[in-house]
């Protein structure tokens, strides 16, 4: 027979055991502190895998993954500008861009290059452009391939760095016409994208019907169709919108039957953004271009003899053309705006010497 003291102790244990089990199962601290700790070697290997992650090479998978990234930048790090260079050649104006970026903290920008793999590159990409070429595919004028290239750049930038806030598309003939600091303050300080969205432009119907009279219907009516510059500055929100789009892209991803009115890259982006979020943009491009005297659908090319302080000042002083922001009173809405041009094109490759001679005192000085 058990002694009274031992019997009392046994009863207490029987009564308290279920409570102990309940506390063990439900207490968060038990799992966190008493469970197995993370293996530091395994953690290091996981981190290494993340650093070496390569985005999918097929567009369908790439765009699907990129469209699912966070729409917000991390609150504990500065927002960045993603500079997206779309080219079919080495970058002849790279020395100017090198000077532009070398005066800038690296935590404020990223550079990405889409280089047509079928084109010759006698001079490899170096300096700030080194190892910045994404998986690229051939591009051809009058086809949707230029849209695809820009979408790839956006997708890679979205996946590479969550701090990328504004995404700027540039050509090899583009130059900066302000300092990086001025450009950064202008773009990061905006909650809206800058993309030219023009309504009722001459030739709109011909462009809309370039794939056939009914090819764009019913998803893209003529009333929805817009024209604008190929070069834009987009917020993270609109970058995700573009890489995630399937419906409007399917309408533009068709071969044109009238190639002389087929400029998909000048129509897809303004049309999509206008249809999905017209109030989220300033309907103007911040990349200056001169269409006076254009030939073959190409704008004026500035040659070396034209490059000087007066030209840069003139480009800075010009006012962007504001288009349709979805309010039906765009002229009134933007009458008082004067957003600064931040970039300009087209500059001949032979003008680099002249550009460099005025870079520090004029181009990069505000």
Fill in the keyword field for this structure.
glycoprotein; membrane; 3-stranded mixed beta sheet; Spore Coat Polysaccharide Biosynthesis Protein SpsA, Chain A; 9 strands; 4-stranded mixed beta sheet; single chain; 366 residues; 10% strand; 15 helices; alpha/beta
Task: Briefly say what this structure is.
The protein is an alpha/beta fold and 366 residues long. Helices cover 37% and strands 10% of the residues.
Task: Explain what this protein looks like in three dimensions.
With 366 residues, the chain is α/β, with parallel strands linked by helices. It has a single domain, classed as Spore Coat Polysaccharide Biosynthesis Protein SpsA, Chain A, CATH 3.90.550. 37% of the residues lie in helices and 10% in strands. The chain is built from 15 helices and nine strands. It has helices at 4-26, 28-34, 40-51, 59-66, 94-102, 145-160, 180-188, 204-208, 236-244, 247-252, 268-276, 309-317, 330-333, 352-357, 359-363; strands at residues 80-87, 109-115, 164-170, 175-176, 193-194, 233-235, 281-282, 287-288, 343-344. The strands form three sheets. Strands 2-1-3-6 form a four-stranded mixed β-sheet. The protein has a three-stranded mixed β-sheet with strand order 4-9-8. Strand 1 (80-87), helix 5 and strand 2 (109-115) form a beta-alpha-beta unit. Residues 4-52 have low confidence and may be disordered. It comes from Hibiscus trionum. GO terms for molecular function: glycosyltransferase activity. Residues 1-20 form the signal peptide.
């Amino acid at each position: 027979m058990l002694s009274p003291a031992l019997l009392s102790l046994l009863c207490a244990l029987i009564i308290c055991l279920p409570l102990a089990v309940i506390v063990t199962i439900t207490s968060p601290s038990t799992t966190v502190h008493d469970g197995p700790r993370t293996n530091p070697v395994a953690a290091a290997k996981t981190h290494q895998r993340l650093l070496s992650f390569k985005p999918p090479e097929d567009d369908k998978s790439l765009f699907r993954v990129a469209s699912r990234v966070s729409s917000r930048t991390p609150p504990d790090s500065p927002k960045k500008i993603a500079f997206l260079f779309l080219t079919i050649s080495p970058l002849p104006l790279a020395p100017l861009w090198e000077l532009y970026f070398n005066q800038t903290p690296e935590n404020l920008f990223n550079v990405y290059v889409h280089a047509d793999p079928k084109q010759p590159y006698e001079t490899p990409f170096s300096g700030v452009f080194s190892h910045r070429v994404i998986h690229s595919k051939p591009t051809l004028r009058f086809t949707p391939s230029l849209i695809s290239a820009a979408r790839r750049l956006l997708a890679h930038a979205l996946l590479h760095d969550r701090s990328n806030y504004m995404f700027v598309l540039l050509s090899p003939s583009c130059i900066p016409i302000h300092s990086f600091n001025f450009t950064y303050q202008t773009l990061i300080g905006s909650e809206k994208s800058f993309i030219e969205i023009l309504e009722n432009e001459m030739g709109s119907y011909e462009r809309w019907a370039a794939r056939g009279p009914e090819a764009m219907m019913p998803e893209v009516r003529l009333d929805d169709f817009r024209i604008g510059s190929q070069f834009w500055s987009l917020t993270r929100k609109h970058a995700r919108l573009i890489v995630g789009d399937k419906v409007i892209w399917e309408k533009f991803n068709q071969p044109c039957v009238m190639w002389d009115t087929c400029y998909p890259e000048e129509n897809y982006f303004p049309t999509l953004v206008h249809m999905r979020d017209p109030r989220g943009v300033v309907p103007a491009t911040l990349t200056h271009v001169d269409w006076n005297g254009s030939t073959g659908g190409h704008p004026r090319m500035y040659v070396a003899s034209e490059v000087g302080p007066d030209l840069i000042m003139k480009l800075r002083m010009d006012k962007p053309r504001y288009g349709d922001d979805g309010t039906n009173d765009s002229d009134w809405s933007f009458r008082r705006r004067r957003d600064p041009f931040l970039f300009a094109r087209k500059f001949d490759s032979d003008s680099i010497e002249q550009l460099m001679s005025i870079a520090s005192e004029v181009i990069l000085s505000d």
